[in-house]
């Protein structure tokens, strides 16, 4: 795809330009969110509730919180 | 004073500045539709974290919608 | 052409008279070089593009503008969302948002007070006589007219917030002139449907959201 095609498809009409920006912002948000979450969970492995839960005996049944 | 009436009078079609019904439909509508789509996506950007929209729209996106599905195991859920 | 240009004193020559002297000297000279322009046209040959297509630099610029737009809209959204979500209830509040009551333990004609979100909730198991009494009240005699059917889901059970609508005291059950509740602070009397009948309170006792789940009552 030549540069002229890219220009004509994405940038020439302002509505398409703005739409593309919003669409990629929408995609970017969730990708960024899951990326950061993945990194955070990797960084704090072993300290998170889902890891700690497995080490508590009898946590599977009848959990009582006070 | 005589009054002359003729059938050939000039009339101005309804318009708003440069806009009239004809060019609104034939020239502007594709662009207006694209703007509509762009603003819809713009709204989606801003309501991305809203559970109502997540459940009704975002979770139904194929493959990509998995991101909004949060599963809390029953023993961890409140109530 | 050049000479006429030189003869007119330019602003530069006014400032620097020496320039005028030089040019007038040059005017006297008969050298043929003066007939030609002494300006040299710079050669831009080495920076001119082969194919004169500006779309490449153009999409670079637009891409940068678009990326800025992308990041700002995502950032604006996240900022707004942070402020708005700070107003919503946190998980510990949500955990306390509902309370369950076992209705089988409440005999007919008894009051039970439970705490829900820090507020008392009155639960009354009404007798058929009391239900009749609540339904037979003349609407025009009420300060805040509301039929009993609007205040209960199941006429046997009256569930309402135990906060006096006057200044927020907790009324006392099974007392007052109308057989319902009586607020000791300023003397508001509520009837068996929790409606204000006498005293300073402006409206009926509030009804919380609740639902019946078999023998259980879930408030909230």
How would you portray this structure in words?
Chain C: Keywords: 2Fe-2S, Disulfide bond, Electron transport, Iron, Iron-sulfur, Membrane, Metal-binding, Mitochondrion, Mitochondrion inner membrane, Respiratory chain, Transit peptide, Translocase, Transmembrane, Transmembrane helix, Transport. The complex is a heterotrimer of chains A (66), B (79) and C (220). Chain A has 66 residues and is mainly alpha-helical. Chain A has helices at residues 3-11, 14-43, 49-55. Chain B has 79 residues and is mainly α. In chain B, strands 1-2 form a two-stranded antiparallel ribbon. The N and C termini of chain B lie far apart (91 Å). The model of chain B has no long low-confidence stretch (mean pLDDT 85). Chain C has seven helices and ten strands. Chain C folds into two domains: 54-87; 96-219, Rieske Iron-sulfur Protein, CATH 2.102.10.10.
In terms of structural class, how would the helical and strand content of chain A be classed?
Answer: mainly alpha
Low-confidence stretches of chain A: 62-66
In the predicted model, the low-confidence regions of chain B spanning at least 5 consecutive residues are none
Structural class of chain B: mainly alpha
What distance lies between the first and last C-alpha atoms of chain B, to the nearest angstrom?
91 Å
CATH class of chain A: Mainly Alpha
| Order of SSEs of chain B | EEHH
The description of the largest β-sheet of chain B is: 2 strands, antiparallel
Helix tally of chain A equals: 3
The end-to-end span of chain A amounts to 63 Å
Which shape of chain B, going by the Cα principal axes? rod-shaped
Q: Could you tell me the strand content of chain A as a percent range?
A: under 5%
Based on CA atoms alone, the radius of gyration of chain A comes out at: 23 Å
Helix proportion of chain A: 55-70%
CATH topology of chain A: Single alpha-helices involved in coiled-coils or other helix-helix interfaces
Order of helical and strand elements of chain A: HHH
């Amino acid at each position: 795809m030549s540069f002229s095609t890219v220009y004509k498809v994405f940038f020439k009409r302002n509505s398409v330009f703005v739409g593309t920006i919003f669409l990629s912002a929408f995609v970017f948000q969730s990708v960024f969110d899951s990326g950061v979450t993945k990194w955070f969970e990797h960084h704090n492995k072993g300290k998170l509730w889902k890891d700690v839960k497995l080490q508590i005996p009898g946590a599977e049944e009848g959990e009582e919180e006070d | 004073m005589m009054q002359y009436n003729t059938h050939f009078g000039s009339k101005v079609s309804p318009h708003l500045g440069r806009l009239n019904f004809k060019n609104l439909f034939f020239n502007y509508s594709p662009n207006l539709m694209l703007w509509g789509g762009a603003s819809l996506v713009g709204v989606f950007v801003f309501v991305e974290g809203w559970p109502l929209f997540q459940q009704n729209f975002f979770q139904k996106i194929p493959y990509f919608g998995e991101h909004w599905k949060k599963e809390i195991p029953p023993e961890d859920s409140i109530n | 052409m050049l000479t006429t240009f030189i003869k007119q004193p330019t602003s530069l020559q006014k400032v620097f008279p020496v320039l005028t002297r030089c040019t007038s000297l040059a005017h006297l000279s008969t050298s043929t070089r003066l007939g030609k322009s002494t300006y040299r046209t710079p050669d831009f040959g080495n920076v001119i593009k082969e194919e004169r297509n500006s779309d490449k630099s153009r999409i670079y610029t637009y891409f940068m503008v678009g990326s800025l737009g992308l990041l700002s809209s995502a950032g604006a959204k996240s900022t707004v969302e942070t402020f708005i979500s700070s107003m919503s209830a946190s998980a510990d509040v949500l955990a306390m948002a509902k309370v369950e009551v076992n209705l089988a333990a409440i005999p007919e004609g008894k009051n039970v007070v439970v705490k829900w979100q820090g507020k008392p909730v009155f639960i009354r198991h009404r007798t058929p006589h009391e239900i009749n009494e609540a339904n037979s009240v003349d609407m025009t005699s009420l300060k805040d007219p509301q039929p009993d059917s609007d205040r209960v889901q199941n006429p046997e059970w009256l569930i309402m917030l135990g906060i006096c609508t006057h200044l927020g005291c907790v009324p006392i059950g099974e007392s007052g002139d109308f057989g319902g509740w009586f607020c000791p602070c300023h003397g508001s009397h509520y009837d068996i449907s929790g409606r204000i009948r006498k005293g300073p309170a402006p409206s009926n006792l509030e009804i919380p959201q609740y639902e019946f789940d078999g023998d259980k009552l879930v408030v909230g």
